[in-house]
């Protein structure tokens, strides 16, 4: 397949390398010529001078890897050019305009997939399987955590140049860590209401929230506590699911899933060998995208699924401003 990668920051470069590894042709464009040159030195990526040139270069699909504030505009241009698109998460920094994109894609019979790579992680898929099989009975409560020190995210680059510290570009921990809200919806269903406190608490640069504490009430009645931050010097990403017959513990850095039964018995799945290559889930994500494009399948995370998570973020931000529970529209 011939693919256009729009935006060649870290995720754009990763997708470019992975598409090449999967045997596809890659064209790339970025507003930053330095980043384009970094990618072009591989000699296997065709660098183009404009989006319009890329859209008309005989490509089948476009991967949108720009800051979130530009996702809808660029994706809409790609769809109108007749391309299927993979938009990196979040689908946008605001739900305004997302419906226009999805309606246009439907009218033109184009596909919109959104890049929630954790959906392709074996350990999290194992959690999904355990919940589907009611391994710990009825789920009562959930705790999810993500924390990582923002200046360490892009080694060799000044974090102050990252869109994460600029609200106008779609930065902030709520949008950056939208993975947690996506996978909780995948595991537990629709969210009914949210209460949240989100603030800029540290000395880090920028005007975005770097800490968020969220409580989600699902339509099923399940309560979930979600902690997100740009602050922890040691990377943490984990999940605790409390059921009436036991507990499931997922630890992403440890690549493990542990089930604790009602009598205290413990069964631990060590998936470190399976997840030793951290790039594997991105490769699997792209393979899924290509399969959906070629076979016209519905992707695991389509635009409407991604819009659900974005609306939870917007509800959380409103709750934090108004200091009250807010229903998800």
Describe the structure in your own words.
By secondary structure, the protein is α/β, with parallel strands linked by helices. The chain folds into two domains: 2-115, Rossmann fold (3-Layer(aba) Sandwich), CATH 3.40.50.720; 120-274 and 309-327, Dihydrodipicolinate Reductase, domain 2, CATH 3.30.360.10. Helix content is 33%, strand content 26%. The protein has helices spanning 10-21, 33-40, 51-55, 71-80, 98-107, 122-132, 173-176, 178-188, 280-295, 303-322; strands at 2-6, 25-29, 45-47, 61-64, 84-88, 112-115, 139-147, 191-199, 211-218, 223-229, 236-243, 246-251, 256-260, 266-270, 326-327. The chain has a nine-stranded mixed β-sheet with strand order 14-13-12-11-7-10-9-8-15. Helix 4 packs parallel to helix 5 and helix 8 packs across helix 10. The longest helix has 20 residues, at 303-322. The protein is globular, with a radius of gyration of 20 Å. The two termini are 38 Å apart. The mean pLDDT is 96.
Short summary:
The chain is α/β, with parallel strands linked by helices. Helix content is 33%, strand content 26%.
């Amino acid at each position: 397949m011939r693919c256009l990668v729009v935006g060649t920051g870290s995720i754009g470069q990763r997708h470019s390398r992975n598409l090449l590894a999967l045997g596809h042709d890659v064209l790339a464009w970025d507003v930053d010529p330095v980043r384009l040159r970094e990618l072009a030195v591989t000699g296997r990526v065709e660098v183009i001078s404009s989006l319009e040139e890329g859209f008309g270069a005989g490509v089948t699909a476009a991967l949108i890897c720009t800051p979130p504030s530009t996702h809808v505009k660029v994706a809409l241009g790609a769809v109108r050019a007749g391309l299927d698109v993979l938009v990196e998460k979040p689908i946008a920094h605001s739900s305004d305009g997302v419906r226009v994109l999805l309606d246009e894609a439907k009218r033109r019979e184009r596909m919109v997939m959104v890049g929630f790579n954790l959906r392709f992680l074996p350990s999290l898929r194992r959690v999904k399987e355990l919940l589907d099989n009611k391994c710990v009975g009825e789920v009562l409560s959930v705790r999810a955590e993500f924390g990582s020190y923002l200046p360490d995210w892009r080694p060799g680059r000044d974090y102050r140049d990252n869109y994460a510290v600029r609200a106008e570009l779609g930065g902030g921990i709520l949008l950056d860590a939208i993975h947690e809200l996506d996978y909780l919806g995948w595991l537990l269903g629709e969210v009914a209401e949210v209460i949240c406190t989100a603030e800029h608490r540290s000395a880090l640069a920028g005007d975005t929230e770097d800490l968020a504490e969220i409580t989600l009430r699902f339509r099923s009645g399940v309560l979930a506590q979600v902690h997100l931050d740009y602050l922890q010097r040691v990377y943490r990403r984990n999940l605790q699911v409390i059921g009436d017959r036991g507990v499931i513990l997922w630890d992403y850095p440890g690549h493990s899933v542990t089930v604790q039964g009602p009598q205290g018995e413990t069964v631990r799945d060590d998936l470190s060998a399976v997840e030793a290559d951290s790039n594997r889930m991105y490769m699997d994500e792209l393979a899924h995208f290509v399969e959906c494009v070629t076979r016209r399948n519905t992707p695991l995370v389509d635009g409407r699924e991604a819009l659900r998570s974005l609306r939870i973020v917007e509800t959380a931000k409103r709750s934090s401003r108004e200091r009250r529970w807010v229903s998800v529209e």
